[in-house]
From TrEMBL:
Helicase ATP-binding domain sequence ranges: 35-203
Enzyme class at the top of the EC tree: isomerase
Protein name: DNA helicase RecQ
Reported cofactor(s): Zn(2+); Mg(2+)
Keyword Disulfide bond: no
Organism: Undibacterium aquatile
Chain's gene name: recQ
Residue span(s) of domain HRDC: 538-614
Cross-referenced SUPFAM superfamilies: HRDC-like, P-loop containing nucleoside triphosphate hydrolases
Keywords tagged on the record: ATP-binding, DNA damage, DNA recombination, DNA repair, DNA-binding, Helicase, Hydrolase, Isomerase, Metal-binding, Nucleotide-binding, Zinc
Length: 614
């Protein structure tokens, strides 16, 4: 896409708005090209990782083009914050959704008709009403932005039926440019978005999906909760983070466990009532250092920039899901951790959920393929990031910032171990679950062993050289590799598969990942993003930074907005480092635009002066 085909003043105008309104010196990655394209009336499909900076891609064109920009978003709970954040930089924004009174709606509609708004966020179900479509006929529309566009995909994890009907925008307003945005990159979803939203003529902008500041780490699960606690205490004391669990019950138990151990944690899942959920979400967004324990119901559109870690206590269903969830860490670009504990039970549980689901066979097959890809990420001997990016069709080199790069796992020829397990399964007529099989191999004298006289099996005790955890790790890999099947209808008993016969006959070799005893999380100076960032500040700078953070808490409270809406950490840190003495010097800092300079400039200079005086 060459910018030469457009009048230069569009580029200048866009850059000018970026600098004066948003206070950022330059566009990131493809933002500039996307803005130009949309300003000139083109349709666009934007694929950018979470935290990549999608919002500016429609906000700036909406400011440049005549009329109001309509943003379709399913995230009703976040609309208030989005509108507040825009108000802070002086952009006239509002929203229309089901949480408003009729009077409020009338008020917004009136402003739209009178051309007094730059951006309006609308929930899809509201947009599709007759009333709203008629309103749109009579107002001047700058563009349609369709946020979280993957919601149109039926195979995706966030399917919203209303999204399918959004093709109406193209039919009724063919002259208005449309920009669809998502962080979900796989080809299938992409194709579905294009097809369903009628974006065949849209230009596609696919950014790199790498999030270099996130460190990926997948550990062998022992006592998951305890490992989580160690991880948080060692690396994330005082940080905000998200812990994902599979079930509502586990969410609540984990939150309670963390609270008992002195870590402020809140639960979030779809089984809680709406008020409590929104309250917890608001606290997580507004207060510093809260840990949210949640099911995947939590997170879409959460744009809190300073989430320092995302932890998974259970295996996600797909790499897409995993990447989207972990992508909520470190949006501000500072280092962050994606940590997961993974074990045999995860594989068994996820396979069972697919098996027992009532969906049709095609759907089950798709889910099975997705799970296999996730398992292969967990078991890989290579760089996690290379593996993930490759899944999204992007080639890369080993990153140096994931667990397998930092302490490479070793592999071993597991053929004999596999044969020991497989023949034990065979000898017990494929009627027993993992625990008993491991007991037999290790020669443990249990009641069940005695009851079935399994001490007489030729494989009894032939695996006493390995610990229980080691055998479970091997079993897990064999299940992940499809060499063992689990029969959920019969007490999760283990069965041989077609593929396992070749291993038993010695025709196929099995290469396995060497079991690593869960290391106690140690406090690496560089590993904690907070340490890293704070280490860079001198004592005096740190004092100013702390002071600025206090000021921000107070200001955010008076304005009733999340702290990061006032200024993100990165901006405060830069102010602390430069200690500007004049408004001009303050204005030069990334994240300080005209309106914020106007609102807060004097107060900040005052804070700096006070500190220097003491
Ligand atoms: P996404 O919607 O893609 O997840 P956002 O639009 O919320 O990402 O942007 C993530 C963060 O990056 C925000 O804090 C935003 O202000 C910041 N940001 C976006 N573009 C730029 C830029 N060009 N320069 C500096 N910061 C930016
Ligand atoms: Zn790596």
């Amino acid at each position: 896409m060459s910018s030469a085909s457009y009048p230069a003043n569009t580029v200048d105008q866009a850059l000018h708005l970026l600098q004066t309104v948003f206070g950022y010196p330059a566009f990131r990655s493809q933002q500039g090209q996307i803005v130009e394209h949309v300003v000139h009336g083109g349709d666009a499909l934007v694929l950018m990782p979470t935290g990549g900076g999608k919002s500016l891609c429609y906000q700036i064109p909406a400011l440049i083009r005549h009329g109001v920009g309509i943003v379709v978003s399913p995230l009703i709970a976040l609309m208030q914050d989005q509108v507040d954040a825009l108000a802070e930089v002086g952009v006239r924004a509002a929203f229309l959704n089901s949480t408003q009174s009729f009077d409020e709606i009338l008020g917004v509609e009136k402003k739209m008709r009178e051309g007094e708004l730059d951006l309006v966020y609308i929930a899809p179900e509201r947009l599709l009403t007759q009333r709203c479509l008629e309103l749109l006929e009579v107002v001047d529309i700058a563009l349609f932005a369709i946020d979280e566009a993957h919601c149109v995909s039926q195979w995706g994890h966030d399917f919203r039926p209303e999204y399918i009907r959004l093709s109406i925008l193209h039919e009724r307003f063919p002259q208005v440019p449309r920009i669809a945005l998502t962080a979900t990159a796989d080809q299938q979803t992409r194709d579905e978005i294009i097809h369903r939203l009628r974006l065949e003529n849209a230009l596609q902008f696919v950014s790199s999906f790498d999030r270099p500041n996130i460190r990926y780490q997948i550990v062998e699960k022992g006592n998951g909760r305890k490992q989580l606690l160690d991880f948080i205490q060692a690396q994330h004391a005082g940080d905000a983070g998200i812990v994902y669990c599979l079930s509502r019950k586990k969410v609540e138990e984990t939150a309670e466990f963390l609270n008992e151990n002195g870590i402020t944690s809140l639960p979030y899942h779809a089984g809680m009532d709406m008020t409590e959920r929104s309250r917890n979400q608001a606290r997580f967004l507004r207060e510093d250092g809260i840990i949210m324990c949640a099911t995947i119901a939590f997170g879409m559109g959460i744009d809190k920039p300073d989430v320092r870690f995302v932890a998974h206590l259970d295996l996600p269903k797909s790499v897409e899901g995993y990447y989207q969830e972990t992508g909520r860490a470190g949006r501000d670009g500072a280092s962050a951790n994606a940590w997961m504990a993974y074990g045999l039970q995860d594989v068994v549980q996820q396979r069972r959920m697919i098996d027992e689901s009532e969906a049709n066979d095609t759907y089950k097959r798709v889910q099975g393929v997705k799970l296999d890809a996730m398992l292969s990420l967990c078991e890989t001997l290579n760089c996690r990031r290379v593996h993930i990016l490759d899944y999204f069709g992007q080639a890369s080199d080993p990153c140096g910032n994931c667990d397998t790069c930092l302490s490479p796992p070793t592999s071993f020829d597991g053929t004999i171990a596999a044969q020991k397990i497989l023949s034990t399964i065979y000898r017990v007529d494929q009627r027993f679950a993992a625990g008993h099989i491991v007991d037999i191999l290790r020669g443990i004298d249990t009641e069940r062993v005695q009851q079935w006289r399994h001490e007489q099996l030729s494989t009894y005790g032939i695996g006493s050289d390995k610990s229980e955890a080691e055998w479970r790790a091997i079993l897990r890999q064999l299940i992940a590799l499809g060499l063992i099947a689990v029969d959920y209808e019969n007490y999760s008993s283990l069965k041989l598969t077609e593929a396992s016969r070749a291993v038993l006959r010695g025709e196929t070799k099995v290469q396995l990942r060497q079991y690593k005893k869960a290391e106690k999380a140690v406090k690496h100076k560089r590993q904690s993003a907070k340490d890293y960032a704070e280490a860079e500040l001198g004592a005096e700078e740190q004092a100013l930074f702390d002071k600025l953070r206090w000021w921000r808490v107070e200001t955010a409270r008076t304005h009733n907005v999340p702290a990061y809406v006032i200024f993100p950490d990165a901006t405060l840190r830069e102010i602390a480092r430069n200690a500007p003495q004049t408004l001009t010097a303050l204005r030069a800092i990334s994240g300080v635009g005209d309106k914020k300079l106007d609102s807060y400039g004097a107060e900040i200079l005052q804070l700096i002066a006070e500190l220097h005086a003491t």
